Every structure is written in structure tokens, then in C-alpha cells.
């Protein structure tokens, strides 16, 4: 399996993301076309559902016209054993950022989401590390075209050719 | 504040001119995404009418909050189609947004490319 995309936030349309192959391992790993092992994704779409449990999580779904991507943004920094081992000041800052992002996600807004690809009850979802709300009304169309271009020119190419082409692709707008 | 977090149907993008029989999308309960210029909005009935060239569609906006309606602006709605007894269609909107500034030609052309890509990918995966 080609691992050259493993640490990349792969831009995928929802219908492609939701049909990623999952391994039966725990935790599962994901592959694109049974060729590329991937762990992170970027999706963009209209927020069509929102379930907020303060101090626990924000679950929402983004619809890009090809499917709905379930997303979860964890807000359990105060109670998670993972964060209990880290510096309290750092955890507070992370929690503030996460809560700030959660407050931006509203029904009908267009959200660009980055995060780890995970599985919940067998369904693919994104465990969100970053979410931004897009103001440009053309953002969704440009995302569609980015996904098409990357699928044809980058993700479908052998590693050596992809390395040459990667500089042409706007993968890091959010960083 | 909160709304359903359970799985929701994706709204299939459709042009208003294609939203008529015998299109498979012209079906009661179909989840759709539509786009058009606001021609009318009634505060009493919360029904809006959007137009795209010579096609129009009624939108039931009763579930939408925090969205202001301005005649002449472009709006996008996602929701479920209801076919009335007189065979007239009404979209029961779940979400809506103002998309003034959207390049409509680019939108429609890109949508064609996305559909073509979906067909190619589906064919590729099935081989």
C-alpha cells in the first residue's frame, strides 16, 4: 500500500470520502481505491445538522452536494484522561480554540473541515482538528474543482510524478 | 440551539428548469439543493418563490431562522420536495443561505464536471 499520502489532509468529495475502504483492524485504517493508505482528510460543505453537548462534543454534518460527511469536534478537554497528562495552561488554550470553532459552526453556514478520518459505528467520519467558516459564496465551487484536479493530477499518479506535481496544488490554504 | 445529529440525506443539486416530470428528482420526499433569485417572500405564510431564468419554485422557509430575505438576492436552499395535490412542487427547506456574489455560470459548469466525475469514479470502483 502506498503511504505517501498518509500525513496529507486529502481533499475529497463526500461520496469518495464515505466510500473509503476500512480495514477490520482496531482502530481501522483507511485506503483510497485500495492503493493509498490515508489518515487525514479535508471536506467542505453546508452545515446541515448540528448537535452540541457543551463540555463534551459538537457533532455536525457537512453536505457538499455529493453526500453528507459526519464530523465530530471534541470539547471534553476538562474530563479527558488524555488531556489530564498535559500542561493545564496548554489544555485551556486548546479548549478555548475548540470552543471558539464550535461556536462558528451554524446550520446553513459553509464549513471547511480538516481532521483525522475515523469510524463510528462502521461509518466514516472526520474527527475535527480545525474548522473554518467560509464567507466567499464561491468557496464550495472552488473546493469541488480542487477535489477534481487533485483526484486526476495527484492522487491518481505514481509517487514520483505526484512529488513533482504537488507544488501546483493549493493544499495548505488553512495553515 | 441543537438540532438532530443523526444522519441526514444529502441534497442533490438540481437546476429549477430540470425540476419537473419525468425527472427522477421530481418526487415527493426527494432531498434537493436548489438555487435561484428571490422573487417573492411572504412573512405571513413564510413561503418564498425563487426563480432561475423562466423556471420557479416555492420554498417553505418556516424552519429557517436567522435568515433575512431580500427580494432580488440569490439564495440556496437544501430540503425535501413536497408534491402538492395539484402537482405543484414545494421545497420544505432545512437550511438556506444568501449566496449573492456566487458566479452562477461557474457553479453550473462545475456541477456538470462533478456529476461526470461521480459517474467515472463509480464506474472505476465497480471494476
Automatic annotation (TrEMBL), chain A:
Keyword Nucleus in the entry? The reply is yes
Question: What compartments host this protein?
Answer: Chromosome, Telomere; Nucleus
Classification via InterPro entries = NA-bd_OB-fold (IPR012340), NA-bd_OB_tRNA (IPR004365), RFA2-like (IPR040260)
Q: Which SUPFAM superfamilies match?
A: Nucleic acid-binding proteins (SSF50249)
GO terms assigned for molecular function: DNA binding
Q: Name one Pfam family in it.
A: tRNA_anti-codon
PANTHER family named among the record's database cross-references: CST COMPLEX SUBUNIT STN1 (PTHR13989:SF33), REPLICATION PROTEIN A-RELATED (PTHR13989)
What protein name is recorded for this chain? CST complex subunit STN1
Supply the source organism for this entry: Rhodamnia argentea
Question: What are the leading ranks of the lineage?
Answer: Eukaryota, Viridiplantae, Streptophyta, Embryophyta, Tracheophyta
Q: What gene, per UniProt, encodes this protein?
A: LOC115740279
Automatic annotation (TrEMBL), chain B:
List the InterPro entries.
NA-bd_OB-fold, Ten1_animal_plant
Assigned GO CC terms:
CST complex
Q: Which Pfam families match?
A: Ten1_2
Q: Which domain of life is it from?
A: Eukaryota
Gene name tied to this protein: LOC115752864
Instruction: Please identify the protein, giving its name as recorded.
Output: CST complex subunit TEN1
GO molecular function per UniProt: single-stranded DNA binding; telomerase inhibitor activity; telomeric DNA binding
- Which biological process annotations from GO are given for this protein? negative regulation of telomere maintenance via telomerase
Amino acid at each position: 500500500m502506498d503511504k505517501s499520502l498518509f500525513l496529507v489532509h486529502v481533499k475529497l468529495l463526500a461520496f469518495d470520502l464515505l466510500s473509503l475502504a476500512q480495514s477490520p483492524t482496531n482502530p481501522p485504517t483507511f485506503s483510497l481505491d485500495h492503493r493509498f493508505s490515508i489518515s487525514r482528510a479535508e471536506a467542505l460543505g453546508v452545515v446541515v445538522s448540528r448537535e452540541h453537548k457543551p463540555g463534551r462534543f459538537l457533532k455536525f454534518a457537512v453536505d457538499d452536494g455529493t453526500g453528507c460527511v459526519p464530523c465530530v469536534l471534541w470539547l471534553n478537554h476538562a474530563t479527558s484522561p488524555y488531556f489530564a497528562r498535559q500542561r493545564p495552561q496548554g489544555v485551556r488554550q486548546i479548549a478555548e480554540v475548540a470552543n471558539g470553532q464550535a461556536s462558528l459552526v451554524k446550520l446553513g453556514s459553509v464549513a471547511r473541515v480538516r481532521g483525522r478520518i475515523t469510524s463510528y459505528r462502521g461509518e466514516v467520519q472526520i474527527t475535527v482538528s480545525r474548522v473554518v467558516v467560509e464567507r466567499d459564496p464561491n468557496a464550495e465551487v472552488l473546493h469541488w474543482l480542487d477535489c477534481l484536479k487533485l483526484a486526476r493530477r495527484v492522487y491518481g499518479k505514481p509517487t514520483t510524478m505526484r512529488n513533482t506535481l504537488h507544488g501546483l496544488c493549493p493544499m495548505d490554504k488553512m495553515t | 440551539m441543537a438540532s438532530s445529529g443523526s444522519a441526514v440525506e444529502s441534497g442533490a443539486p438540481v437546476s429549477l428548469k430540470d425540476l419537473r416530470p419525468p425527472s427522477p428528482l421530481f418526487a415527493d420526499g426527494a432531498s434537493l439543493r436548489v438555487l435561484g433569485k428571490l422573487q417573492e417572500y411572504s412573512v405571513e405564510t413564510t413561503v418564498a418563490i425563487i426563480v432561475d431564468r423562466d423556471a420557479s419554485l416555492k420554498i417553505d422557509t418556516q424552519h429557517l431562522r436567522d435568515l433575512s430575505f431580500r427580494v432580488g438576492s440569490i439564495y440556496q436552499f437544501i430540503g425535501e420536495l413536497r408534491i402538492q395535490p395539484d402537482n405543484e412542487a414545494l421545497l420544505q427547506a432545512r437550511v438556506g443561505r444568501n449566496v449573492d456574489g456566487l458566479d452562477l455560470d461557474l457553479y453550473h459548469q462545475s456541477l456538470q464536471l462533478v456529476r461526470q466525475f461521480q459517474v467515472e469514479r463509480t464506474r472505476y470502483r465497480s471494476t
